[in-house]
UniProtKB/TrEMBL annotation, chains A, B, C, D:
Keywords: Aminotransferase, Plasmid, Pyridoxal phosphate, Transferase. SUPFAM superfamilies: PLP-dependent transferases. One of its GO terms (molecular function) is pyridoxal phosphate binding. It holds the Pfam family Aminotran_3. InterPro entries: Aminotrans_3 (IPR005814), Aminotrans_3_PPA_site (IPR049704), Dat (IPR004637), Ectoine_EctB (IPR012773), PyrdxlP-dep_Trfase (IPR015424), PyrdxlP-dep_Trfase_major (IPR015421), PyrdxlP-dep_Trfase_small (IPR015422). This is Diaminobutyrate--2-oxoglutarate transaminase. The keyword Transferase applies. Its EC number is 2.6.1.76. Pathway: Amine and polyamine biosynthesis; ectoine biosynthesis; L-ectoine from L-aspartate 4-semialdehyde: step 1/3. The gene is ectB. Its cofactor is pyridoxal 5'-phosphate. One of its GO terms (biological process) is ectoine biosynthetic process.
Amino acid sequence: MTTVTTGDKSIYTRRESEARSYCRAFDTVFTKASGSILTDAEGNDYIDFLAGCSSLNYGHNDPDMKAALIEHISRDGVTHGLDMHTDAKSAFLRAYENTILRPRRMDHKVMMTGPTGTNAVEAAIKLARKITGRRNVIAFTNAFHGMTLGALALTGNSGKRDGAGGTSLNDVTHLPFDGAMGEGVDTLEHIEWMLSNPSSGVDAPAAFIVEPVQGEGGLNAASKEWMQGIARIAKEQGALLIIDDIQAGCGRTGTYFSTEDFGIDPDMITQAKSFSGMGLPFAALLIKPELDVWKPAEHNGTFRGNNHAFVTARVALEKFWKDKSFEKDVQRKSELLGARLKSIADHIPGATLKGRGMMQGIDVGSGDLAGDICATCFENGLIIETSGAHDEVVKVLCPLTISDELLEKGLDILAGAVAKHTNNTQIAAE
Amino acid sequence: MTTVTTGDKSIYTRRESEARSYCRAFDTVFTKASGSILTDAEGNDYIDFLAGCSSLNYGHNDPDMKAALIEHISRDGVTHGLDMHTDAKSAFLRAYENTILRPRRMDHKVMMTGPTGTNAVEAAIKLARKITGRRNVIAFTNAFHGMTLGALALTGNSGKRDGAGGTSLNDVTHLPFDGAMGEGVDTLEHIEWMLSNPSSGVDAPAAFIVEPVQGEGGLNAASKEWMQGIARIAKEQGALLIIDDIQAGCGRTGTYFSTEDFGIDPDMITQAKSFSGMGLPFAALLIKPELDVWKPAEHNGTFRGNNHAFVTARVALEKFWKDKSFEKDVQRKSELLGARLKSIADHIPGATLKGRGMMQGIDVGSGDLAGDICATCFENGLIIETSGAHDEVVKVLCPLTISDELLEKGLDILAGAVAKHTNNTQIAAE
Amino acid sequence: MTTVTTGDKSIYTRRESEARSYCRAFDTVFTKASGSILTDAEGNDYIDFLAGCSSLNYGHNDPDMKAALIEHISRDGVTHGLDMHTDAKSAFLRAYENTILRPRRMDHKVMMTGPTGTNAVEAAIKLARKITGRRNVIAFTNAFHGMTLGALALTGNSGKRDGAGGTSLNDVTHLPFDGAMGEGVDTLEHIEWMLSNPSSGVDAPAAFIVEPVQGEGGLNAASKEWMQGIARIAKEQGALLIIDDIQAGCGRTGTYFSTEDFGIDPDMITQAKSFSGMGLPFAALLIKPELDVWKPAEHNGTFRGNNHAFVTARVALEKFWKDKSFEKDVQRKSELLGARLKSIADHIPGATLKGRGMMQGIDVGSGDLAGDICATCFENGLIIETSGAHDEVVKVLCPLTISDELLEKGLDILAGAVAKHTNNTQIAAE
Amino acid sequence: MTTVTTGDKSIYTRRESEARSYCRAFDTVFTKASGSILTDAEGNDYIDFLAGCSSLNYGHNDPDMKAALIEHISRDGVTHGLDMHTDAKSAFLRAYENTILRPRRMDHKVMMTGPTGTNAVEAAIKLARKITGRRNVIAFTNAFHGMTLGALALTGNSGKRDGAGGTSLNDVTHLPFDGAMGEGVDTLEHIEWMLSNPSSGVDAPAAFIVEPVQGEGGLNAASKEWMQGIARIAKEQGALLIIDDIQAGCGRTGTYFSTEDFGIDPDMITQAKSFSGMGLPFAALLIKPELDVWKPAEHNGTFRGNNHAFVTARVALEKFWKDKSFEKDVQRKSELLGARLKSIADHIPGATLKGRGMMQGIDVGSGDLAGDICATCFENGLIIETSGAHDEVVKVLCPLTISDELLEKGLDILAGAVAKHTNNTQIAAE
């Protein structure tokens, strides 16, 4: 065995599958992370505008979560308990009831699925099919719901779908998302027509599953009116409404759930990513109580009870969601972010602002340009990624807890990279 | 908000989905766990013969893993890093290469899938279909591979399958496992005949996926000869051999991989459950290098890089797998366990011994009897569960690190429960 | 055994399945048929505006076909020869080559499928999937392609689809037909967008299958521009273009193939219904020669060689398609039909004219009204049916050989029925 | 246009799809057919031991059927009437009731499906799924049920299945047919075990579909005991029993239905091939009245009412099935056939007799040998084909009406061909 330095990356080419991805764009070895900063083995700091794809809404290694977790581990608190009752689980559920469900007058029950988003999505569509006796699920263009077969069938991206290797991705109808077909086209009309025509070939749906803001799909934000329309059509069709809030939830858009100001009443909501607060694997499905017709263990999983996540998730709820102050701060920063992005976008011919809340970005018109911008950002100490069907959107997903100073600094780096690749010196100067 | 005691369970009926399961059989609130003992809010200790369904092969809260994890958290080590390089990940991969892969002359690459077993299984079958251009996968009767749609299609249990709510569980052929059809029937012959007959209606398979010991299916252990037969047929058919070692791996059968003494060369191996060492969510797929044809992110996931799990998994490898001593101790205990179970089984009319290594149990002939035995065990301080198509097998899955004393004590409780429910006072006395 | 009269219908309720349909609307026993007239057991004559759903384009029992068929039978010509060479088959193929293929410069090959339209459709999509290695087929809203599982998946009607009893109707994407979403909406744009967006969730198609005029779907006639657009998109997508000409072909729209004036070059064309000339079961699939990659018997069937149909089909070709006179006469009648229908439609509030050629009708706005009109027509000696998603279209499908006198007489009956049910005495008077 | 002779075959290579098959083995142009003799353009006579794959049980061009059909055509009887009542249809149904259903105390209803076997099969499985609410259908190894997607999923042959071009052949489980796995193996036990094990992965079936004698699959004849076992298991499972009697019915095995001496009570029976008597396309599904829950037109089709077939089918019923004499003659000939085939088989090392009734043949051990034998037969004036998974069975399917003289003559030719290819001069001499 040879001596290796911390920064040695040969093990990855030698032993990690070609499926690895982010490490290719951000090709260094990270050793520390705190708040909005990641540090690599050479001691370089990077501002994190990716935040674990929205899994680190409260930043890296929040000190209160760390402390609670260390205390839990130190005292031999249960780490793995399948889905047995534990004090950590009880405390989490009580905190979730008190800070999230009751204040929003939600009577949903919490299903502990496996700790990944795709598992929560699979549970949701299984339950919807079981309840309605229908197979078809309406998903939307540019949707991303996961990589396991049921969730992959809901996902739009052809590159991901090809990974199924030729097996059928069945029982899903993809219809156009809000705004997908351009300014003039009201996609609600299209959806309603397809579902109300008994000869359209679209079978009566068990459910609609919607990301209120499509993160992977290009930061497409559905309007309140469109979401209300979908809720109405679902009800008319006898279908359930599933909100996939895995990326847009946990405060990302300025409220805990991304649709809580929309006046709709989802039958199910999926949660994952930032749900544990600290980036630990954790997911759940919220279900209206009358729909909770699961038989015991009908959908199960070994890691439904990640007690470490219960601990940190409880701290997150108590620290950030006891009152409105965090939400207000996120909303304030969202405006700041939007304004800065708009001024940057104004210097790119044809560019448009995308997204909502702290989930905004710029459609720069081409995947090549977006990729170049992100690469330059990384060289200059900013971790930021693209999204969209053609990777054409530069996406800001920084921690919601980021300081104004770091947010501005990160946006300066972004502006500089845009200036470089658009030969526009004016932007950086602003 | 009312004051609640630690042991209050009302939150579960009020807010957790009916899908919850283990907490129904073990209806108390656990607050501490160490080694092979779980402790509840009233201070009662329970010997753990379930071990998180084989997720806690090294016991609860191993002190070295705890220490390393606390150190990592304290120094702001990366918690969530998507699939970026981190020092914790590098160290884990190097340890895995040095303690597991190289000594076994395995050139497999490691694919970090989502941190659940079902995700590793989904990745395996996607890849097998992609490589072979075939859709059909051979799975076995009584198999359990997970709850997401692709894995569920591979799973035999009708109760679980019904959860799909009527959507097709496609592109899988279930064939009889070793011994499934009773003593006289060589299922290999059946399998071979079905696959070699070009008019059998069984399409050419992309892969065979096998649990060498079926944990959920009733502790059915495939023989070396049968596994070799499956490996041979797979090769003849141009199909890949996928070993699902999620429950039987990580030392459970006495070796790190459950088939490493079988003289077969699996194309892919799934790992999860005890893979992190400490019960944290963590899974991976081992892939022969020539089969690693994934495109970057073609199968991805938010929690592919659970750095806490990297830390504890590395400690587990270094502590238990640097030499043969742990394996030998497990093999010694396996014999002890087998002998005691046999003597208990001998007092139950028609009962048979099932399983292999530290994954053994007794088929007591009926689910009712098995359930009664487990319930009595719990009353007497032992956590133990059933498995099998009719829940007819009482299954011992204690930590591999259990002391002989606790193992004997647990088996005494089991013997007593058997005696009670078979009205046989002799057993307990032995 | 009791004595029965010719007109006794008790055998049907006693012994025929409830699946029977047309006999419910036209509840008499027919005993004779000639040209455009059906005669029942009581001697009542009915003008036939249904013509076997376009299977009798040349009318009932054409004397030349009759004579040739009787001659063939009398001389022990082969009746059933599987797909072996027979003189009747040779003569048919030569006539088809000379009258249809060569004059239109078509190099297609003829695949004798089973003698039903659905079988030709199934063959077409199997071949398209085999050639392209893709599974997805684009079909259209309100499409009707048959009742066997592959064709049913292409069919839009939910009542028909429900007959599948819950099995998946896979690997088909239904997109909106020309004009389906109303005047203002260019469905080509929608189709193109869905297929060019790599994240739409619509997998790359093997083929587009289109009825140029949707018969069952409500006499929706695609425009030349739209069909050209579909042909262009198919080519861009690497997908094959399948024209389902089963109902609209054989002269129904004024030319032999319904798209021959459209400047498109279909990869495959399905033919059935009037293909035999005399209403005998007979179907075929035309395939561009470079696409004829079938292995012998890879798609087979017992009744691929209906020699009686070869005889009558040959007569039909020689009698009606040797020159342009028949086409011109059909086109002349089509104008006459259109004009009369328009004047009838003008008296029904909100009614619109549908269709093309001798495949026209009136959308009267409601299935109830359309049903009432057809029922009254039958009472008055006219056989005519509805179509459309809501059965809202009164559809004229009379023999193309109908005399002007009978055509006018039938339309008079229709006008009278419309007048009765719209309380509009003016129509009939015209 | 060039002058062509009757025997010119260039049109086929020029214009018929490569899917054509029988014409390759029997490469001449037939011009006449009568009884058991086909005659080609050169005036050569061939004894027909193929009989349209059992579509010509009453021989070619039966004079009574011819006469009735010519009379019908001459008097302008209805040719095509969709599924409307006609005198020809009434007369057929009454004859069927009187000669077939009532004497066998069957209360089944007759569903007129499209005129092909595959259509009747598709209707049967649709109905079974609709009734039971289950998707899975049990089909058997080596089964052949048709080429449309639903029937193809039931078919075992991989060459045929590959024609689906990669789309899933879903919701079918193939289990081993009677005797499929060799002498010692009771496949009923296997089937029963797979279906009674709730964790086998085989979903509860909607139906079992069985050919009592597998024609294409190699003349595998199920025993009475096995068929009774399947009937019992189906009942226990709440599944319907569908007998596919398309090839084995209409007297082929010595009784009208091939299982009428088996003491079972099928829920549905498919009929086609010889159903029309004269080889015209015609099929039907028999349904127990309580299962006839079709909605009108829920399964429909243009050619459900082939009135020419009604006419000839009625004559067949009245001529051959009014009393037991025809059955007795078929049974007599079956013994004769069996004895001759056995004596031929005895001279081929390893050869075995296959089949039942007038559906017998010799498994000669290899497809090459079987092919050579059939080719030599054709040279010597006998049309005969192979079947089986490896085309290893030489299959006799002559008309049931064949004279003893022609039957012996045909068997002499067969014996001579066997002698030639096994270098055994003794056979022919016998």
